[in-house]
Design brief:
Blueprint: H1 2-43, H2 49-57, H3 61-70, H4 72-77, H5 80-92, H6 97-106, H7 113-122, H8 133-145, H9 151-162, H10 167-176, H11 185-197, H12 202-211, H13 220-233, H14 238-247, H15 258-267, H16 273-279, H17 284-300, H18 305-314, H19 323-336, H20 343-346, H21 355-372, H22 381-385, H23 389-397, H24 403-407, H25 439-450
Helix pairs in contact: 5-7, 8-10, 10-12, 15-17, 17-18, 21-23
Family: Belongs to the mTERF family.
GO molecular function: nucleic acid binding
Protein name: Transcription termination factor MTERF15, mitochondrial
Length: about 450
Amino acid sequence: MAGRILVRASAFRRLISTSNLTFSFQRVHHVVSAKAASTFSNHLKISPNQPDLLHKIGFTQSQISNFLSQNHLFLTNSNLQDIEASVAVLLSFKILPKDLVSMAIDCPAVLDLEFLRKWEASLSLIDLRNVSALMIRSMLVLSKRFQLDSCIFITTVDLLKRLGLSDATVTRVLEDYPEIVFSNEEEILRTIEFLIGIGIRRGEIDRIICSIPKVLGFRVDGRLKSLIGEFNELGFDQNVIVREIVREPRILATELGEISRCLELLSNLKCRNSIKEKIFGDCALRAAFEVKQRVDCLCKHGLIRTGAFKLLWKEPRLITYELENIEKKIDFLTHKMKFGVDCLMDVPEYLGINFEKQIVPRYLVIEYLESKGWLGSQVGLREIIKPSRLRFYNLFVKPYPECGKIFGKFVGDNETKSPSRHPIGLWKVFKPQKHPESKEDTKNMKSFMESFV
């Protein structure tokens, strides 16, 4: 009995001590939270004119609130006059307001006035005919992020021009691949010599680098040699490889194994010979690159790579279609028709039919019927695209006369009429010519008829 009392007493003491500790922790937590809240409120002492300035630049209301909350320390340490002066300097670089907004959101430190003043003086030292706003934007962001001096960009420009690149190509490189400043002269020269070594003429090197500036960042011993070796192993002649690279330099940007996977798809296609002839019209390497472009397009809109390859296998005509046509159909599917991209796996025919003549009229009919509440159930993409034109007409257009104008003419569309031999009105030319009857003709006719009586 005494043991039980001791146990209960000790448990009671632990409970009291725990409750006191919890209460003490709550008090400390409350004090710390209060101090943190007061400190955070002090940091948020931003000038009320700053939101107005951001709004004038082009920030939306949601962008202003996010920008102020994420960069309150920077804005607190900067006065309004400095920010206005920074914006004026950026606009003097011919940077558009929308680009200025995205640049400030991406790298707010570019609004540092002292940093921009140094760059304003350095830009006049860059030996280029045309320094574009996009090039300046790329250099400013990279310079601020990695604390680079503007002299390194001036040195890089001089190096690229000394290697024989034109002003337009140098500008393009710094626009799209400003990280070139981290490469040394030996690496860049080796890349150019490798391209010349595989058979590309020096005069075409400039155009290739202008088309794909990131090629200067590819390692010769790593990516470039492996890529050309893959093409050789696939059986392509060196002249064909060089010809296609010159024709489409983006082939150099393909990952290892991509072209092999695309060729595997092409070898397993099941379609009409006319479609195959159109796909392989130029050469197999070009056809494989066209497959890669369509796969990238489909993946950009939400499909996984396996699904994109499967979709192309189901609908090979996509390989012959322009990318703009495919993207227009996908945009209409997702934004206007409100279907997911995954629906294409069940209805690949959607990307193969005519947009203006079939997709749009059918959708407008369904949209009109849904607005009137005349559809008993929801109509999916399969029900819109799969039926033939006659079946869709009988199901959704014929019972509702109002839909006739939306869908367009149909009656007689499928009738085959044999053309007449002669144009309308030509029969009049073949009528016998009439001559006036004389009295003598009438007398002869009467005498002829009397002989039969």
